[in-house]
Each structure stands twice: as C-alpha cells, then as structure tokens.
Automatic annotation (TrEMBL):
It holds the Pfam family ANAPC4_WD40. SMART domains: WD40. InterPro entries: Apc4-like_WD40_dom (IPR024977), Quinoprotein_ADH-like_sf (IPR011047), WD40/YVTN_repeat-like_dom_sf (IPR015943), WD40_rpt (IPR001680). This is WD-40 repeat-containing protein. Residues 261-322 form the Anaphase-promoting complex subunit 4-like WD40 domain. Gene3D superfamilies: YVTN repeat-like/Quinoprotein amine dehydrogenase (2.130.10.10).
Length: 324
C-alpha cells in the first residue's frame, strides 16, 4: 500500500499544483497552503474561484471573488497581475510566453508577459477558457458552442456552434481537437482541421473534470461510477470507438481524474474520498487512498509521477507516495 502524508485543512480544495517540487493546495477561502520543509501558507484572495500552474510550473495563477488575478511563487510571494473591480474571476488559464487568460462575466481577457491586456466580449457569459498547446490561440466555452480568438492579432474569431450550455474547455495536446464539457451529461468536440463534430454522451452525471494522457492519446473524464477514457489516436478522434471504463464502482461516482505525467495511468478520485490508480492497457487497479470524509476535488502528480497530491471538499488533503 502506498504511504500517505495527510494534511487536514479547513476549506474546500479548488486546485493543486507542484511548484519547485512542493505541493500547493489552493482552497476556496482564498488561502494557498504548501508543504515545503513544513506546512506554510499564503493568503491570496478573499474567496478563491479558480487556479492553475503556469506553463513551466514556476507560479500558481489564481482568480478570486475579489476581482483580482494573482501569481503565487514557490517562495510564497504573491503578485497581483490584474484587478477588475468587485467582479468574480471565474476561470483561469496559463498560456505560452508567460500569457495568462481569465474570465469575468461575459468577457475573456488575455494578459501578456509585457503587461498588455486584451478583452474579448461575448453575448453570454464565458464559462471556461483554454490556450492552444502551440501558438497564441484562446478558446472560450460559451452558450451554444465555443469561440477561438487569436489574441496577438486582430483576426476575426472562429465560431464553433453546438446547441446547449458548454461549461469547460480543453485542447488536445497536439492541438488537433477541441473538447467541451456540457451542462447536460455529455462532452462535445470539434476536429479543428475540418470542423467535424464529436459527440461523447451516455454519462449518468455531469462531466466536471478531464485530463489528457501523457502523449495525448486518451482523454480521461469524470461523471460516471468509473473513469470514462476516450481514445484520440485516430484521425477522427473517438468517433465510432468505445471508451475505456476504469475503476468502476457501483457505490460512488468519479469526481476527479488526473493522468500520470509519463505512463498511461490515471489517478481516479471518488465522491466518497477514495483514490485508485488504473492502467489503460489492462485496467489493473491499485488502491492509493481509502474513502474519507468528502469527495475528492483536486489532484496533481509531481513531475516524476511518483507522488500524487490530493484535496477534498471537506479540506482533507495530503500526498500519496506511490513508492511507499
């Protein structure tokens, strides 16, 4: 059984990132805790809504209910990157060349490394944002589809339509596909070269978490009693192909998935606090953590894929050392 270093915190864990080989736990109360030669913390926001590491894992980018976007360095230094008044920053994305994207109401913003900022307005609220893996391109999840912007130019945005509310968004690591989570129990996708649609349905619950495998061949998702893992090896992605189902349990829904940084393995977190690791090739499972007091809400592997940091809705957090 892998060993666990527990960390009991007192608020819902929103996101986790490894900075300078130390796990950082971003909580809904606006405090970011880190394990770095002891337990340390920094008060970053008056209520935190979104967080993600930047492209080189040097900083944790955060957005809060206080209308601020900040960057937290591994040494605990907090720098304010943007202030939008008393509005909620609901989505954060880290882009290439030090760029940061964030969403406020009906607007998506891109903040460049040189301090320049661009705003892209939409008819309805911006629900999710993501940067393409190559080039400066920002995708926005919105009602009835997605919009692609080119922040470094004044080019016309590309509109990708599909009826319904799109709530989250991600590019495939090779940049060929764009996938959204939806308010209904489904994913939708587009093959960007020709605009072909990809419908991924059949979930018993809403998909709130997704994670690409190390080489981008698989997309693992929550929203079912097991992790639903779609194949993206073919030129048309998962169309006409059945997904893998990993770690299926009858008594608890999957709430978090996190693919290993080098192996085709996913960590799977459940509504009862249990965590399994499952291998794609043969569906072999390893128990990483027994059930706890609340649903797993965040997970992140370290760079080597030897340790998994996790957090829950009740604040129960910690680090699992796979090597034991």
């Amino acid at each position: 059984m892998p060993t666990i270093a527990p960390l009991d915190l007192d608020s819902h864990c929103i996101a986790i990132a490894w900075l300078n080989d130390s796990p950082h736990f971003a909580l809904a109360d606006g405090v970011v805790h880190r394990l770095d030669n002891g337990h340390k913390w920094a008060e970053v926001h008056d209520g935190l809504l979104a967080a993600c590491p930047d492209a080189d894992h040097a900083r944790l980018i955060t957005g809060g209910e206080d209308g601020r976007v900040t960057a937290l360095s591994a040494d605990g230094t907090v720098k304010t990157l943007a202030e939008i008044g008393r509005k909620w920053v609901t989505s954060i994305a880290a882009g290439p060349q030090g760029a940061v994207g964030f969403a406020v109401g009906r607007s998506a913003y891109v903040l460049f490394a040189d301090g320049k900022q661009r705003e892209f307005q939409h008819p309805r609220s911006v629900e999710g944002i993501a940067f393409a893996p190559k080039g400066m391109r920002l995708a926005v999840a919105r009602y009835n589809g997605a919009t692609l912007h080119f922040p470094a130019t004044d080019g016309k945005p590309t509109e990708l339509e599909w009826a319904g509310a799109h709530t989250g968004i991600t590019f495939s690591p090779d940049g060929k596909f764009l996938v959204t989570t939806m308010q209904e129990n489904a994913l939708h996708g587009w093959k960007l070269a020709d605009g072909k649609h990809m419908r991924m349905a059949g979930y018993p619950g809403k998909v709130k978490c997704f994670s690409w495998s190390a080489k981008g061949k698989w997309l693992a998702t929550s929203g079912a009693p097991g992790a639903i893992v779609w194949p993206f090896q073919a030129k048309d992605g998962p169309m006409g192909k059945a997904p893998l189902e990993l770690g299926t349990r009858g008594d608890a829904m999957v709430t978090q998935v996190c693919c290993h940084p080098t192996e085709e393995i996913a960590a799977i977190g459940y509504a009862d606090g249990m965590i399994l690791a499952a291998r794609f090739a043969d569906q072999k499972e390893i128990l990483l953590r027994r059930s706890g007091k609340g649903a797993i809400t965040a997970m992140a592997w370290d760079n080597e894929g030897r340790r998994l940091a996790f957090g829950s809705e009740t604040g129960e957090s910690g680090v699992v050392d796979i090597a034991g």
